[in-house]
Specification:
The complex is a heterodimer. Chain A is mostly helical. Helix content of chain A is 71%, strand content 0%. Chain A contains six helices and no strands. The longest helix of chain A is centred in the N-terminal third of the chain and has 37 residues. By secondary structure, chain B is mostly helical. Chain B has one domain. Helix content of chain B is 74%, strand content 1%. In chain B, strands 1-2 form a two-stranded antiparallel ribbon. Chain B starts with a helix and ends with a helix. The chains are: A mainly alpha, B mainly alpha.
């Protein structure tokens, strides 16, 4: 990442860290209150569950503030939020590919894994990913995906008896499913 | 002497086919994983911790130690053949390893790296077996005050040293890890902190899925979204035989000893790791060498020095991990988690609950060093074939393995969800110059800091004076303050001014 873009990102993240730090401190103070009122006995500040989060939150807020100052001194601005700049980033090939990878893994985990048997969900994920990123010819992708998903399911699920995530749909005669 | 006899007895008990096959296979696996750019020893150990959870305790430890040692050497294969370090610890090996392979000397470079790995691991083993037992006795005098300040010092050092951009980002990373460790029931009151009413979070953020997410997902995204894949150099030509390899390496015996000491010493400092050890060793070799002009162009010392150091780091990093319960580097951080999952609590009580544990670990390290030596060149050629697999085939497979590793431990789909979420967070943090090491260390040590801090304050009735009056605690506090001050621009200005004055006085 270019230095000015990095510092602009640091400026934004510094603000986010300050907000998170203040939130943590607020929640921690609440823990002191709950302890004093609800727990009554041994209600000393130093054995409160809010002590460590309060200290961490305070230092987090401070360092977030320092990051904002360093970012501004080093040329960080809010230009990164300008729509043209965002459009430029969204059009970058690396961003598109990265987004695609995240989307594919997200679909695999949140949609496929819980609904389909592990073999099937992994097979679909492998085909989709290898196909979209043009790993090889389509029939080779099909073959690699089938062999790899079967192999992993068989070795880990059947031979090693490691529990695998998967939905309830059962396919007979397929090992590991 | 009795320690040596104990070690020999334990080593003898490990020298059976079952153990040797397991360590051999896991070392080979470690070499392969370490060789693939983007896959680290930390990720391999994290994955295998979940996958080996159902095995007997010592079978699991055999595998994890084998993979750890193998991966440290494996990183040098891609450094030499592809000009891309397989692991961070091999980043210095690239400088002279790849030029050697371009000169048609890839075989020699890998041989030197293998011998370096062998001697490095052995030196680390010597450090472990000689320093850890007496340190274990000293650590019994550590109280909650010392443990609190030591753990804070470890997170601070990890943040300062590992951050690729500003040190403040390393500290923020460490704090982020400490914050994550606060999620769940606290250890003293069982009060639910930051669970947002979700039952799944009351047991806290699970370590292994988060580690897999931080170390696996960002690399998968990076490699699939853009990196060039380079064809490996050939290792067909055998320039020297085994005797010639040893003769060549013994020419640099001073480098072997110096690099081993640097590596083991740096590894013993919590939170630093093999990458720094390798660079420090490379720099030392460069400064002392009579053939400085060869460095960067294919100097044999330039390959040996970092490899010896990063492998010596294995034994060095196990010293604070086993004696203090504070990991020496990211792989031992995961290893620490694996130990606790198998019912072994590293730290002051280890010598009482498992008195032979350190010698058993040392024996595994000793055997693994020979495995690396024996398997190093044998594995190198198949690894070359793996380098030819396009990342669009390899990385989806790695994703599937990450999912299995994240799920296997607790068999909860929420762990896989967390793996994904923290993987995305890890990717953005890495892109913005935050290293995962201090985050991981913070997550691991957060519970220890919280518990010991509150216990210490309960003992002192709320007074912080004992932190300052107890000598060891005071040392950690002063060193931590020095580390923080030394990173400020004011300090650097004063330091520069002092240097200029010294030069002008001379």
């Amino acid at each position: 990442m270019k230095r000015d873009t990095l510092r602009s990102a640091d400026l934004l993240t510094g603000i986010i860290f300050v907000v998170i730090g203040i939130y943590i401190c607020y929640q921690s103070m609440g823990m002191f209150y709950v302890q004093r009122i609800k727990m009554q006995s041994m209600a000393a500040w130093y054995n409160s569950p809010g002590l460590s989060p309060l200290i961490i939150g305070a230092i987090f807020t401070f360092l977030g503030g320092m990051l904002i100052i360093i970012a501004i001194k080093d040329g960080g601005t809010f230009e990164i939020l300008i729509w043209n700049r965002i459009k430029k980033i969204l059009k970058m090939s690396q961003f598109k590919k990265g987004f695609l990878v995240v989307l594919l893994i997200g679909i695999y985990i949140f949609v496929l894994l819980d609904r389909l048997p592990f073999f099937l969900s992994s097979f679909i994920f492998l085909i989709a990913t290898m196909g979209i990123f043009r790993a090889d010819k389509w029939y080779k992708i099909l073959l690699y995906s089938a062999i790899l998903s079967w192999f992993v399911t068989f070795i880990f699920g059947t031979v090693a008896r490691i529990p695998l995530p998967g939905g309830m749909l059962r396919i007979p005669f397929l090992p590991g499913v | 002497m009795s320690s040596l006899i104990r070690f020999i007895y334990i080593l003898g008990s490990f020298l059976n086919p079952h153990v040797l096959i397991i360590i051999g296979a896991s070392t080979a696996l470690g070499i392969v994983v370490g060789a693939i750019p983007g896959l680290t020893a930390t990720l391999a150990i994290a994955l295998l911790t979940g996958l080996t959870f159902g095995l007997a305790r010592w079978e699991a430890f055999n595998i994890l130690v084998g993979v750890y040692v193998g991966a440290m050497f494996g990183g040098s294969l891609s450094a030499i053949l592809l000009n891309i370090p397989g692991t961070g610890s091999a980043s210095a090996t690239v400088l002279d390893g790849y030029p050697l392979s371009l000169q048609g000397k890839a075989y020699t470079a890998i041989s030197l790296s293998r011998i370096g790995a062998f001697f490095g691991t052995l030196i680390g083993f010597v450090f472990l077996i000689s320093i850890a037992p007496p340190l274990m006795k000293a650590v019994l005098y550590f109280t909650s005050f010392e443990m609190t300040t030591l753990a804070i010092f470890a997170v601070l050092v990890a943040g300062t040293v590992s951050s690729p951009d500003l040190p403040i980002k390393g500290w923020i990373g460490g704090l982020f890890g400490l914050l994550l460790s606060c999620v769940g029931m606290d250890s003293i009151w069982s009060y639910n902190r930051f669970t947002f009413g979700l039952m799944g979070l009351s047991t806290g953020i699970p370590l292994i899925p988060v580690l897999i997410g931080f170390f696996g997902i960002p690399q998968i995204i990076k490699i699939l979204s853009g990196s060039q894949w380079v064809n490996p150099q050939s290792i067909e030509t055998k320039e020297v035989g085994i005797v010639g390899q040893f003769k060549l390496s013994f020419k640099y015996s001073a480098t072997i000893i110096r690099s081993g000491i640097i590596g083991a010493g740096v590894g013993a400092i919590p939170g630093i790791g093999g990458k720094i050890a390798a660079w420090l060793s490379y720099e030392a070799a460069y400064k002392i060498s009579k053939d400085r002009e060869k460095f960067g162009k294919g100097a044999y010392e330039g390959v040996m020095a970092p490899e010896i150091a990063n492998n010596a780091c294995c034994g060095g990093a196990l010293i604070p991990t086993l004696t203090l319960g504070i990991p020496g580097d990211p792989p031992t951080a995961v290893f620490l988690a694996a130990l606790m999952l198998h019912g072994v609590t590293p730290g002051p009580l280890l010598s009482i609950e498992h008195p032979d544990f350190i010698f058993q670990m040392a024996a595994l390290l000793f055997i693994a060093s020979f495995m690396v030596f024996g398997l190093g060149l044998v594995i190198a050629k198949p690894v070359c074939k793996i380098f030819e697999i396009p990342p669009a085939i390899l990385m989806p497979m790695v994703t599937v393995m990450c999912i299995i590793g994240g799920y296997a431990l607790n068999t909860r789909i929420t762990d896989v969800f967390l793996l994904f979420v923290f993987g995305i967070i890890g990717y953005f943090l890495t892109e913005m110059g935050y290293h995962p090491a201090p985050i991981v260390l913070g997550l691991l040590l957060g519970g220890m800091i919280d518990e010991n801090l509150r216990r210490a304050l309960m003992i002192s009735d709320g007074s912080i004076l004992p932190f300052l009056t107890r000598p060891i605690s005071l040392v950690f506090i002063l060193v931590s303050i020095y580390i923080i001050i030394s990173q400020t621009s004011l300090w650097r200005k004063i330091w520069q001014k002092q240097k200029k004055n010294n030069i002008s006085n001379k």
